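Before the break, one more example. Copy the sequence into your notebook; we will annotate it together after we see the structure.
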Amino acid sequence: RTLSIDAVQKADSGHPGLPLDAAPMAYVLWTRFLKHNPADPQWFDRDRFVLSAGHGSMLLYSLLYLTGYDLPLEEIKKFRQLNSRTAGHPERTLTPGVEISTGPLGQGVANGVGMAIAEAYLASRYNRPDFRIIDHFTYALVSDGDLMEGVASEAASLAGHLQLGKLIYLYDENNVTLSAGASLTFTEDVAKRFEAYGWHVQRVLEGNDPVAIEKAIHLARNETRCPSLIIVRTHIGFGSPHKQDSFEAHGTPLGEEEVQLTKDRLGWPTHEPFYVPPEALEQFRKAVDAGGQSQSQWEDVRTAYAKAFSQEARELEEIMRGQCPEDWKRNLPAFEADSKGLATRKAGGQVLNVLAANIPAMVGGSADLDPSTFTTLLNQGNFQSPRRSHENIQGAVEGGWNYAGRNIAFGVREHAMGGILNGLAAHGGLIPFGATFLTFSDYMRPAIRLAAIMEVGTIYVFTHDSIALGEDGPTHQPVEHLAALRAIPHLTVIRPCDANETVVAWQVAIERRHGPTALILTRQNVPTLDRSACASADQLRKGAYTLSDADQGKPEMIIIATGSEVHLAVEAQKKLLAKGLRARVVSMPSWELFEEQSQSYREEVLPSFVKLRLAVEAGSPQGWCKYSGGDGVVIGIDRFGASAPGATVLKEMGFTANHICEQALRLRMRQ
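Here is what the structure looks like once it is written out:
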């Protein structure tokens, strides 16, 4: 408690209220239950702890320092300062022991569900009688604000349905939010809501009662048929004479005088900030020896497991190291040239199934859209509770109904799906994917952004990528979404132009384990290009490449296109050549991959001497000026779509080879 309020006060910024009220439950969990090894924060079979209420970050940093993680006291004193390892909200890539980047409320609730799914899947696939090689719990500390957010409701509903018995959430019920008492906005019966979701719910009436908290956690751990919520009634800013139970303790420092008064009321020495008695530190640091012993015992089991089940052990070793099998690319399809072609969503489905057959770490699903996104893993079973009957349930996948199933039915829950995918990825060992229509990526943006911040390898499959989806109309036709996704740092967006580029796009997504990837796929058929007449689809790895060059001499114009517009650019190139204009066609499936290339390569593809440039994409033109140049033209969309057959909408909005040709000729005339 006092470490936390001292750090907040020194920074003159932060949230002292939650550490003061939630410290007892955190202390009980971390010193009496949590299986972890501060000397090896990445030990694979550790329990996972998520601070969903990320504004209370100093509570977590205090625990990490006290229990012996590589987070010295000097870092506690630099809370919220530039280049410190104690950022305002927990960051996974910055601080040893932080499992997930939290802050946006509700996200941690979904992340924890993903981690529990990962544990259940790996345990079901690899554990054997007498060998519980995967056996850990997922805990989270959640707040009133977390449980107000819709993403938490989505995730909790799915967790209850899946009966994730090793998921335990401690709810810090202090009845205060940042701007007011929670009763101003939040008067529902949380216990009844979670009971309705299928959770085991307990109440601890006094947050300062470690005996009651310990008993509740014991009961939760023993309840293996469903997830558990422990509602702990606390007092925000506990011990503060003037700010306890007030929203003033939530988001601002207590003040120097109030810090001293609080310490005095808590019976703590006031003479020295950041005071840690040696006997207290010794007590906490027992976690190092205990963690080492737990990990050593696990290593013994792991060694015996490898002797008894060598094949499974080799596979699990690869998964724990985050590696794919050496031959993970075997049997990938190669598509013949075809003017009718194939929708890239369908090609993507074929590729996904081959990859999943080769890579046991791949798990995922869609937001109730498998028949449209083609992301079902055939014969790989459903990730479902084996205690639920699956008889007469439509949509069940062949291959089993249990926690070893690799198809996760997220239901109509895009927001939770995004957060759960991040939990799966952050858990380690798995390559998660989730699918929905591109327009519904709006529901997932908070989770996508956090995946990029955390640099986890989540894969998003966004189909129905343009106005070409047709009759469903403007609500379902994405316009601004590509620009919005490209604006997220560290997110790799790939929009392949045909089936063969889709094969390579999936490979790139698998290989990029240190950042998320969004695959943008068509609903409609697009021609499979004749690669004997143009560049190899493998060039997609470079983000952009010369697909078809001018027949003779240097190009006078460059037409840059992505996805389903690339074949229109190729058609337009032929028409322009007949009119005496030499054009180069550049396929640019990924801005991000292109920017990773050398300056010399980028100059080779988009030579600066070619001023006439035309960019073509059925989406917002925002950002394209970087590649089209000041003298160029962008054929894009600056309005919402229309409800009509896809081909009709495309023609109406100028996405035809003739229109591209007309714009190219006008551009030349302007010069």
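The mean pLDDT is 96. The radius of gyration is 28 Å. Try to locate both features in your own notes.
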